[in-house]
Amino acid sequence: MVERVRAGDARALARAISLVEDDAPGAVEVLSACFRYAGDALRIGVTGSPGAGKSTLVDRLARRYREREETVGVLAVDPTSPFTGGAILGDRIRMAERLSDAGMYVRSMATRGALGGLAQTTADAVTVLEASGKQKVLIETVGVGQDEVDIVRLADVTIVVLVPGMGDDVQSIKAGIMEIADIFVINKADREGAERVEKEVRAMQSLAMKHSAEDEWVPPMVKTVATAGQGIEELVAAIDRMHEWLSEGGRLAARRRRYWRERIVEMMRVALLREVHQHGFSPAEIEEYAAKVEQRREDPYKLVPRLIAERFAVMEEGR
Ligand SMILES: Nc1nc2c(ncn2[C@@H]2O[C@H](COP(=O)(O)OP(=O)(O)O)[C@@H](O)[C@H]2O)c(=O)[nH]1
Ligand SMILES: [Mg+2]
User: Fold this and answer.
1) Whose CA is nearest to atom 13 of ligand 1?
2) Does the pLDDT of residue 54 top 60, yes or no?
3) DSSP characters for 269-308?
């Protein structure tokens, strides 16, 4: 399967990502095989409020890269509508015309992975996309919860999409998004108030920059009208500049190391949880402990460490 993925076979790619998404048997082997061929793509995260125009932008960016004859993988992560699939369906239709292009692969991720969560599943899907030789991987995600911030961390370049008339949203940008933004896009610049958003972000930037180091990247601001393809060229140029900057002095490597520091710990957590699940602790057993704790026949603060110690003993014996 991995050989076919590497050859760019879209069906094999789809199957491999599904395998990973479902955490099906063989998923780890596929990922491990893919990992050897991953790491060469530029990962571009696009985040922002629902309706900001992320999908429209991603579609435009993807087209532009295809014009430059670069291969593109797109992951649209939208945890806000896992059941109705509203936005996701829209994305699919919009992207459908690109399905016949072998140099491009588009995928919606709407499921939450069993133990690792959406961020891990997305990261794993990116690994598969990279193994397929995609040069640019675009990851679209709604910038709301922690899961989404974790998804963005996996990107080499993070684009934060803002729109005029957000009002209080600018306050929430201050909170977290300011730190993760490498490039600001002010989309829907055809609407009233684009200048105001720009001014507000610049004001926040100049405050933040008083504390920043000399050689730090100053996130540029690009105004776009995604629906009309306006500003896309400037955005692509900004991404290229960021890519160049990252490539100098080992910055990209440092960024990815920082990511892996967190990811490895997260993978350990998941691996441990998996061990715990696999070595007993059936729901019935948990139910029994729950009842005992509720009846105050067990102290959970003593019970859990004891159970863990017992389980580790079992794991050791199993080796
Ligand atoms: N006026 C205007 N509408 C836009 C622009 N970009 C996207 N839209 C529209 O905004 C809506 C949401 O776009 P979409 O890309 O699905 O946003 P997402 O939820 O962030 O992915 C759609 O109806 C788009 O056609 C823009 O630059 N100007
Ligand atoms: Mg979207």
Assistant:
1) 53
2) yes
3) HHHHHHHHHHSS--HHHHHHHHHHHHTTSS-HHHHHHHHH
Indicate whether 143 and 290 sit together in one domain: no
The reply to whether ligand 1 has any atom less than 6 angstroms from the CB of 229 is no
Counting from 1 in the atom list of ligand 1, the atom nearest the Cα of 48 is 20
Ligand 1 in reach of 187 Cβ (< 6 A): yes
Nearest CA to ligand 1 atom 24: 53
Q: What is the pTM of this model?
A: 0.86
Q: Is the CB of 39 under 6 A from ligand 1?
A: no
User: Would you say 151 and 139 are in contact if contact means Cβ atoms under 8 Å apart?
Assistant: yes
Tokens of 167: 């009002």
Asked if residue 208 is part of any domain, the answer here is yes
Angle in degrees, CA 133, 157, 109, rounded to 5? 60
- Alpha carbon of 27 to ligand 1 centroid (Å): 35
Q: How far is the CA of 188 from the centre of ligand 1 (A)?
A: 7
Q: What is the pLDDT of residue 48?
A: 87
Q: Which of 11-15, 93-97, 295-299 has the lowest mean pLDDT?
A: 93-97
Dump pLDDT digits (tens) for 135-187. Answer: 999 999 887 666 667 777 899 999 999 999 865 555 555 556 677 889 999 99
Dihedral of the alpha carbons of 157, 158, 161, 162, in degrees to the nearest 10: -120
Residues 286 and 155 in one domain: no
- Find tokens 């710990």 and name the residue: 265
Domain count, the chain: 2
Q: Is residue 56 part of a domain?
A: yes
Ligand closest to 232 (CA) is: 1
pLDDT of residue 234: 98
Q: What is the Å distance from ligand 1's center to 226 Cα?
A: 7
